[in-house]
Amino acid sequence: MQQMTLDEKLQLVHGTGWGVLREGSQVPARSNHGAGFMLGIDRLGIPDINLADSAVGVRMAAPDSRYATLLPSVLGLAATWDNSAAHLYGEVLGRELRAQGFNMSIGGGVDLTREPRNGRNFEYAGEDPVLAGNIVGHLALGVQSQRVMGDIKHYAINDQETGRSVVDVQMDERTMRETDLLAFEIAIKMAQPAGVMCSYNLVNGEHACENDYLLDRVLKKDFGFRGWVLSDWEATHSTVKSANSGLDQEMPGEDFFGGSLKQAIASGQVSMARLEDMDHRILRSMFANGVVDDPPVRRVVDPFRGKDDSRRIAEESIVLLKNNSAQLPLRAASLHSITLIGGHADVGVLSGGGSAQVDAPGGNAIDPAHGGTQWGKPVYFPSSPMKAIQRLASSVSIRYISGDDPAAAARMAGASDIAIVFATQYMTESVDSPTLSLPGQQDALIQSVAAANSHTIVVLETGGPVSMPWIGSVSGVLEAWYPGIAGGEAIADILFGAVNPSAKLPITFAKSDADLPSPRIAGMTAENKPRRELNEDRHTSFKMSYPEGLAVGYRWFEVQHRQPLFAFGHGLSYTTFKYSDLAVDSVARTVRFRLANTGPVAGAEVAQLYVTLPSAAGEPFQRLAGWQRVELEPGESRTVSIKLDPAWISTFDVSSHAWKLPPGEYRVAVGYSSDEAALHGKLLIR
Ligand code: BGC
């Protein structure tokens, strides 16, 4: 710092233009062609920062003839409830970023699902702050374990894409701290990421990137965040206000943190100490993550290792939602014919769009002739569920039909033993889905297939929850999210029981839009059509108060006495589990119970612990307070012990600006899901 000139100090606090992201803009000579670039200081041996979007895999690899593994959605990762899977997920990202020459990841989305139709939910970890914070914290640790700087985004309360640059979220402090900000707090304290990206939206009247409460007071002081705050792309709106509220780096260019910051320093509106604090945060994070001492060395990414890791995570992430009369797993020996319908299941699996889009090897599997990725166009990856099923059931006749003609699909389905419909919902940054319904005619297609064959199974490849008006007519449903480069194999493994499903929903599936806290998304146009890039219309700011407040996700359904279609935490297995012997130790704040695999095959149960605070807390709903993923052989049982972490179940007291664990009696529920407890107890906190 002592040796840096003023211009050098300024050089680190902004990026260099839109680079490869925007056609026609200047690409810095040393850019590695990622989403962002910060020019280092050669004279002092300070390397450049090359940043790549990497929510579910490294973005924009193909134009440079590089390969990147597509992982399952982050939402799918959250469905594993498995910290080691999250760490592995981050390791894959970090390893491939490094091999491609990047020293910083942009990813780690942990915005809470208040809006289940949000176009980016697949990049996030669901609706519970404790689950989401843990999953994304472990993911960021995994990235940084590869000596690549990690990032957590979009800070904060960027919970819908509709009007994302103009929506002014109104939320009281207690609600923020106990829900959306708690997810960030857990992840950030756990991983100490190099970067936190502030978001496009406003919070209580101030843009997130110039919001003193969010940046200075909460993130830096309360969370003790030691890295730097970088703005989302063009989410910086001022020089003096942003700098003095805690923004440390403008991305991607220098509209505010270049010449105008220099002037503000000259005039004393921003102090030199503040500029040095920005630089210090950037430099210490570079050293802390090893990118100075051990810079990335380019290598060829190993696609096979990536695929194996992706498959392992996918197999833990696919949720068996419904399984009537043990329809699944399918037994090839007792079947003659299966019809596969729709979702391009003959060639591949769907991926999510926007800045999380990864390039598919060989181009889009449904349109290889047109090669590369285009913004807003669904990309399928070459992992064919049909081929994977053929491999597992070589004696069975497997046919595929697109489903464009529902009558033809129903006829073919009616003539086979089993029908499997692959239903898809493409989601992407900047657009929300106006409804929970599956797009196009897919609901009608499923209805007609189910009418023709009583053994109809639906495999969903969706960004988030969807409604299922046909649920009563099908015998099985799998939620595969966007399952990644080994998705086809993972789906087939679950369908045929090569893998016993163990995932549980990290998000509530409502029966219909009418049951959601906001039946209609605020800011949607009158016709209920997503106004694409409404965020670019900077003159139509509107306020959004999420009506559920503290009662986000499953808590809303509890306080409203509404039955969801599938509850938070729900997920079936091919074996059965039994819970018994609950013992609650109020002094040690530990909950112990016995879990047994009482069924025929090995399996894993995600045992969940919920608590309801004493009534004086004013929170008449249960909160997830812990869980454990337990693998058990048939007949095996084990004692599970979960220690309550007070940070996960406290309330935020606004007047003292402090967390409190309210004294009194806590109701404890342990079991299969948020709506199916097996054991009940009480915990006394004095
Ligand atoms: C997205 C960020 C992304 C950035 C750079 C923005 O539009 O909101 O998540 O990292 O672009 O691509």
Structural features, described:
The chain is of the alpha/beta class and 686 residues long. It contains 17 helices and 27 strands. The strands form eight sheets. Strands 10-17-16-15-11-14 form a six-stranded mixed beta sheet, sandwiched between helices. It has a four-stranded mixed beta sheet with strand order 8-7-5-18, with no helix packed on it. The protein is globular, with a radius of gyration of 25 Å. The model is unreliable at 528-536 (pLDDT under 50). Residues 35, 53, 106, 153, 232-233, 355 line the site of beta-D-glucopyranose (BGC).
Features:
binds beta-D-glucopyranose; alpha/beta; 686 residues; 17 helices; 24% helix; single chain; six-stranded mixed sheet; four-stranded mixed sheet
Q: Topology of this protein?
A:
Blueprint: H1 6-11, E1 36-38, E2 49-53, H2 74-78, H3 83-99, E3 104-106, H4 129-144, E4 151-155, E5 167-169, H5 173-178, H6 180-191, E6 195-198, E7 202-203, E8 206-207, H7 212-222, E9 228-231, H8 240-245, H9 259-266, H10 272-288, H11 303-317, E10 319-323, E11 337-341, E12 349-350, E13 380-381, H12 385-392, E14 397-401, H13 406-414, E15 418-424, H14 442-452, E16 456-461, E17 476-479, H15 487-495, E18 542-544, H16 554-559, E19 577-585, E20 590-597, E21 603-612, E22 622-632, E23 637-643, H17 646-649, E24 651-653, E25 658-660, E26 664-673, E27 676-685
Parallel strand pairs: 2-3, 4-6, 5-7, 5-18, 6-9, 11-14, 11-15, 15-16, 16-17
Antiparallel strand pairs: 1-2, 7-8, 10-17, 12-13, 19-20, 20-23, 21-22, 21-26, 24-25, 26-27
Helix pairs in contact: 3-4, 3-11, 4-6, 11-15, 12-15, 13-14
Beta-D-glucopyranose binds next to loops.
